[in-house]
Amino acid sequence: MQRSSGTAAGESDNILSQPDSLGPGIPVALTIAGSDSGGGAGIQADLKTFQELAVFGTSALTAITAQNTKGVHGVYPIPPESVIGQIDAVADDLFPAAVKTGMLFSAEIIEAVAERAARYGWQNLVVDPVMIAKGGARLLQKEAIQALTVLLLPLASVVTPNIPEAEALTGRSIGTMSERKEAARHIHSWGVRHVVLKGGHAGNRAQAIDLLYDGNGFTEFAAPWVDTRHTHGTGCTFAAALTAGLARGMRLDEALLLAKRFIQSALTDPLGIGSGHGPTNHWGYNRTYGDLRRIIPSKEAVIL
User: Which one of 124, 136, 250, 297 has the fewest CB atoms closer than 10 angstroms to its CB?
Assistant: First the structure.
């Protein structure tokens, strides 16, 4: 079965409306990631995405980066005990329904996050294995990869690597769809419940095909390729939209469809900011599908 992020006729009939009063029942999501001073990726992208999808966003910073659309100019990691303090402050009071990790930088921070994930028993943990910035700066130390695979992935509901990240995780080259499936199986064997291997780096200029593996079979989520240099923060934004969907009580396939549509809208309606890899447009989804109180239904995914 193949799902697409395109628009179907009559789709508006399936849109769920939020109550006008967003009170105690509002879903909460937590992002544990680095700060992007340029605003296109990291914590900033995650919180913008949560807001657009009517989820209350909370955060725990793992690092501060000095960056813009031209590249990363500095990385300043946060002490692990400070990361733990932020997580505890949120978890003990705001009870996030879903949690996303992004840039974790070091083995020590990964160990701290994994310990807290186990302590709090997070069921909706989305791991975006951020490793390399668009300009080539390293955002995860090489020696931290093992900590990620051994400590954090077994606790995760879903991991969302792109192809270069999957190659770094598995130590194998990925060029064909068959090799992508083998890599997904390899990553799944570490204990993560679902693998979403994104297809934006696959070289297919017709479609970007994301591959979901649940341990039993594969599902493809396809969208038309968007030729744009404004791609800064795509991975963060995609994973944040997926996290928002899970926080709202969606099944994983529903949340993945939401994330696919959200990032597609963000790419096709560019902001044109910056002289390098510009940020995606976090307003794009609601311009396409309606205001922030109208999103894809949480009861049943739209099958296209």
Answer: 136
